[in-house]
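FORM 7B - TANDEM STRUCTURE REPORT

SECTION 1: FIRST PROTEIN
SEQUENCE AND TOKENS:
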Amino acid sequence: MTPGTVALVVPEEIGIPSWDLYELSIPATVFGKPQPDLADPWYELWLCGTAHRSSGAGPGFSLRTTHGLADLVRADTVIVASVPDVCVDADAPVPPELTEALRAAHDAGARMVSLCTGAFALAEAGLLDGRRATAHWMHTAQLAARYPAVRVDDSVLYTDDGNVLTSAGMSAGLDLCLHLVRRDLGAHVANQLARRMVVPAHRPGGQAQFIDLSVPAADTQGLTPVLDWARANLDRPITVEDLARRAAMSPRTFYRRLQETTGTTPLQWLLNERLARAQTLLESTGLSVEKVAELSGLGTANNLRHHFLKQVGVSPSDYRKAFPSAAPREPAAAL
């Protein structure tokens, strides 16, 4: 499986403000550093400058780019990590040469991705019309007001509409990039990459953008050992009461603290973990769908298929076909 080329748009002519480096560095790290032990070939990253020269005309940092906007049309994936602040705060237009290049790339079949304020560029190009999209919650009101044809959702980490994806700001951009790796190369590769980056392996796009941070960042609530235990025992029936008992909390307190910490409910957290386990088993083993359902704790093959179609968008059988390197299937497997 070849993940292809990723073209990352670099706004050269204005210089890059220090606060925009974070969003730029996320796709550069995920897609630009080869991981031959995880997948070979890895992605090929192109830094595509909007002026096709070394940046630095304005205040901020400069990057030396090797490609220009004309190269977007040849990329498999195009990522716009941000647009100049004036395009958000002062209603300045997104540079027309950028929007034209984005339209051409989309028409050529590229997968279009925005992080944070990059959604303004996709929206200006008309690529978000009629679609659900998001951006950093501080900018979603402006996005919705300026582009009424876009169905703006300020409550999610990222959206996936097939060949057009958008994310909220800051760390949500990393969630979306890992989601792309998961789509392209599978759950195992994405999980291993997340482990190397010391970040959660998978935060679903529907998780809330902002969580009550009155909860201490350190795990002073004893949730980590409980969640680790749950991950190690997904093949067993697990209830909220079981988790609360292990955390020495009432079910109501456990529910509240997990939601405060992760932005999701205990049952949804369990379902997400079970589906991630099922993806890994489908990618790396030849176990039947029935056995995958059993080992991931989803019970029956029908239950696995139902949740897989709803959350992943394809059936377990079709998902497995994308990973021909998986172990040979069991002779009696009925997929």
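SECTION 2: SECOND PROTEIN
SEQUENCE AND TOKENS:
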Amino acid sequence: MAISSPPAPAAGRRPGQPAPAAAARWSAPRAAGRIAPYGFVAPFFVLFAAFGLFPLVYTAYVSLHRVELQTSEQMDWLGLQNYTRLFEDHFFWNALGNTFTIGVLSTVPQLLMALGLAHLLNYKLRGRTFFRVAMLMPYATSVAAATLVFAQLFGRDYGLINWLLTSVGLSPVDWQASTWASQLGVSAIVTWRWTGYNALIYLAGMQAIPGELYESAAMDGASRWQQFRHVTIPGLRPTIVFTVVVSTIGATQLFGEPLLYEGNSGGGISHQYQTLGLYMYEQGWTFFHLGRAAAVAWVMFLLIVVLALLNAAIAARRNRTDR
């Protein structure tokens, strides 16, 4: 009985290698599988390029030209003159200083109060869900509505704050004309709006800390304050860095609260609480200098990058020292 031998492979093809047609049928699904993830993320990159990258690059291009709002189609090349004029402007440095002071006055109390509130909500309290929802109410409130209400509270003649001050024998304060008083008023709005938001972020970070650490600390005789210092704070360090970076970015971009506090882009009679956001708005939409406004926008962008890198470097150095 004759035994049939397997067919000889075609010329140029090794034994076991699939035929060209079969290889094509196998390679097509594999190629599609490799391309499919890029297709899924492509809409994000298209939208980012259209509404994020292009405006950023175009703003940098505009900042190198003289562009007026009335004749925005006419561009005269200036190079870096918009930036040099910016750094020679007293009002720019005033806005930069106001941005820093308002940022400190609003960020530091805001994060400290958020940390304390999150620590209280981390315990088993009655109505915890209600309190957590109530924390988000200021954040969900419109910035325009919140600022208008606070502007009435800080009114010079009929404001509730001055009424309380006079009722205890203190002199009323002009919360919109005085430099420090107006900056405290704007900082109070920012603190009220964002404390609850940061408190919920801290609360989520606290709930991710293993409970065994608290049990071990309690068995060693640590009080609740000691547990908070030596267990909660080290466990929340990445979350704290995140909130500091986000709050710093928000303080640098502060715009709505100081704009609506008195209703003008000058930031008060003597620009006492004009921030960089208001200064940019004033250059572009009050004085119609779009080129200078674009230069301010890029200075703000670079400032945010530097502050974010500085915070990251400080956090990394702290982590190395703790190891």
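SECTION 3: OBSERVATIONS ON SECOND PROTEIN
The chain has a mean pLDDT of 86.
Residues 155 and 262 are 10 Å apart (CA to CA).

SECTION 4: SIGNATURE
Preparer initials: ____
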